[in-house]
Specification:
The chain is α+β, with helices and mostly antiparallel strands. It is 31% helix and 32% strand. The protein has two helices and five strands, in the order βαβββαβ. Strands 1, 2, 3, 4 and 5 form a five-stranded antiparallel sheet that branches.
Length: 96
């Protein structure tokens, strides 16, 4: 069985409140996948931090969550899954 993997990212360069943003991404994606009727799992949120790019600048922080999606049968296509996730935020996808 194929398993789809993708990652949702909230980045401090683009969003001031990354805690709120990652929860919005997680909740919205989870609700959409549930309504589609596929099986999915998520990791806990994890953080990445990079040092400032310039002196006096601020560090870059990201909150991330990884989704693993499986579907059964042919009634729901992978294109349906992509479209459902892309409503919240387009992301790169990998099959594992």
């Amino acid at each position: 069985m194929r398993r789809l993997k993708f990652e949702m990212i909230a980045d401090s360069r683009f969003t001031k409140n990354i805690d709120k943003e990652i929860e919005r991404l997680r909740k919205g994606t989870s609700e959409n996948l549930k309504s589609l009727g596929v099986k999915f799992e998520t990791t806990d949120n994890f953080d990445l931090v990079w040092p400032p790019e310039t002196k006096g600048g601020s560090e870059t922080r990201q909150h991330r969550v990884i989704f693993y999606v499986e579907k059964e049968g042919r009634k729901i296509t992978w294109n349906d899954v992509y479209a459902t996730v892309n409503i919240i935020k387009p992301v790169p996808y990998n099959f594992i």
